[in-house]
Amino acid sequence: MKKLTVFLLTLAIALSLTACGGTSGSTNQTDMEYVKEKGTLVVGITNFAPMDYKGTSGEWIGFDADMAGAFAKSLGVEVKFVEIDWDNKVLELDGKTIDCVWNGMTLTPEVTNSMECSNAYCNNAQVVIVPSNMFDKYQTVDDLTDLAFAAEAGSAGEAALNELELNVTPVKTQSDALMEVAAGTSDAAVIDSLMAAAMVGKGTSYSDLTYTVALKNEEYGVGFRKGSDLADALNDFIAASYADGSMLKCAESYGVQATLIEQ
């Protein structure tokens, strides 16, 4: 697997998105109380290596999956993973079919306005995927105007392409976007750089594809229902995980070189 340097953000410089201690549903029960009462933290995810993907035994593993499991354990509950349609993540939260979205989620204004988000914990970028033999032709944003793109519906990649007014067809997942390019039904795709490092290039599932232009830099966070007190609890957990080194160890175990940013 290729290694991609991911700069994990120190809590001191992370965007502070403070929870308001809100309630869950129409009662005065907080989200923390709700999760502890039912005994599970239900995490909404998609198949997104190296953040959330299935291991050889069919269990969900990955940087985000492992950290979600550790957070659930710190709350004294079990973790349960549910695959969701990424475009419906807010509906899933508000309908209480999941308790959080923890899947390399970019902290866009749309996300932070509709969810109670944790502090940012990871930097990422959106990158253009093309066949390897087309690498030299597509090196700048200006080179991309003639391409037909595939991108996950509701993703930061789709948003970046729309901002540039490029031709994009939304698909269900980032993996589907890669398959479109591999099959020749789309000229290119835009996906997260973390997924690109894990799945594209020599020694990966898509050895004939490569990544070129980075369209935008971004930050990852975890989303809860608006007003949820679980966001503050996760911020405390992130701070403790930085301090004891467990978060960096988890990142390294998935082929991610994690470096704290000092300011």
Plain-language structure description:
By secondary structure, this protein is α/β, with parallel strands linked by helices. The chain has two domains: 4-123 and 218-258, Periplasmic binding protein-like II (D-Maltodextrin-Binding Protein, domain 2), CATH 3.40.190; 124-217, D-Maltodextrin-Binding Protein, domain 2 (3-Layer(aba) Sandwich), CATH 3.40.190.10. Helices cover 31% and strands 29% of the residues. It is built from nine helices and 13 strands. It has helices spanning 31-38, 63-75, 89-94, 109-114, 156-163, 174-183, 193-199, 230-244, 246-253, and strands spanning 4-8, 40-45, 53-54, 60-61, 78-83, 100-106, 116-117, 122-131, 148-152, 167-171, 188-192, 209-224, 256-260. The strands form three sheets. Strands 2, 5, 6, 7, 8, 9, 10, 11 and 12 form a nine-stranded mixed beta sheet that branches. Strands 1-13 form a two-stranded parallel sheet. Residues 1-7, 9-21 and 257-263 have low confidence and may be disordered. InterPro entries: Solute-binding_3/MltF_N (IPR001638). It holds the Pfam family SBP_bac_3. Residues 1-19 form the signal peptide.
